[in-house]
Amino acid sequence: MISVVVPVFNEVENLPEAWRELSRVLEDTGEPWEILFVDDGSTDGSFDILKRLHEEHPDRVRVLRFIRNFGKTAALTAAFRRARGEIIITIDADLQEDPAHIREFLQKIREEGYHLVSGWRKKRQDPPSKTLPSRLFNLVVRTTTGVPLHDFNCGFKAYRREVVENIRLYGEFHRFIPVLAAWKGFRVTEIPVRHRPRRRGKSKFGWKRMIHGYIDFVSVYLLTRFLKRPMHLFGGVGSLLFLAGLAINAYLSFEKIVFHRGLGYRPLLLLGVLLTLSGLQLLVVGLLGEMLRYHHYDPRDEYVLEQELL
Ligand code: UDP
Ligand code: MG
């Protein structure tokens, strides 16, 4: 089965068209399918339309409604947990990406063995205030993480079920799904998709996304590198600083005791104290990291199986 997940936040004008187009494309695949709409706290009557769709097509349309707006990441997470399909496809309700590409997504997964296929809005139909920052974002994420995508944040993606079962999304991490998936070992690729301007309704993400995107990027970057071994980051740097400080202080003490050289006026003393203290602090942060890992131990965080011959 194919599950299509559509996050919806105040998209009342787009929903009828989205349903028509999606259901047609899905019907054409000749496979069993369902659509999960997640109403992320809409206040414009989106839910009434979704409710009607569900009543008209109870076996096709499933609807979740949040009590308030929790954000796109939350919407996707909620739907991932309930999706029944072996393949899960996400697409934005404004259908800026052409759903006709679904066939190609399926093919990439089934015939070429990819776990995640991400859309690439090659000719993006958005204002430059959006596309320029986005280019920078994609360049930075691509070069630092080594995941070779051009468009991380495209809402149109297809996943094998294992992917959504094995990644943890919170905050606004939907922008980094390919990074989190690749980090778990999943094979990630992209295909160019036709992009169109938003026809109706308003874009929900303004300039704030840049700041959030940057902060989240730092988190994701460090998480994917050091989550499993916090001590390797904090312990390593911490020990180095601590030992350097210790050496400086030992040298100063030696001169004081053997040569009776006063140390109160020496800047080196300040450096020595600073290094020992900051080193110690980093070590303790690393220890806290390890304690968190220990107490929240979950084998699913440790590995992903490719196959099982038992
Ligand atoms: N969306 C959501 N919750 C939010 C913001 C957006 O579910 O808090 C949905 C929105 O309804 C749309 C998708 O996420 O289906 C992408 O939003 P939008 O088209 O505004 O983003 P853009 O294309 O401008 O990047
Ligand atoms: Mg859009």
Features:
single chain, 310 residues, alpha/beta, Spore Coat Polysaccharide Biosynthesis Protein SpsA, Chain A, 2 domains, 10 helices, binds uridine-5'-diphosphate, binds magnesium ion
**Measured on Cα atoms, how large is the radius of gyration?**
25 Å
- What do we call the CATH topology of the largest domain? Spore Coat Polysaccharide Biosynthesis Protein SpsA, Chain A
CATH class of the largest domain: Alpha Beta
Low-pLDDT stretches are none
Can you tell me the CATH superfamily of the largest domain?
A: Spore Coat Polysaccharide Biosynthesis Protein SpsA, Chain A
Distance between the termini: 26 Å
Instruction: Record the strand order, biggest sheet.
Output: 3-2-1-4-6-5-7
Helix content: 40-55%
Beta-strand share of residues:
5-15%
> SSE order, as H and E?
EHEHEHEHEHEHHEHHH
Structural domain count: 2
Distinct helical segment count? 10
Which ligands does the model contain, each kind named once? uridine-5'-diphosphate, magnesium ion
Class computed from helices, strands and strand pairing = alpha/beta
**In the CATH classification, which architecture of the largest domain applies?**
Alpha-Beta Complex
What's the shape?
elongated
Mean pLDDT: 95
Strand tally is: 7
The major pleated sheet works out as: 7 strands, mixed
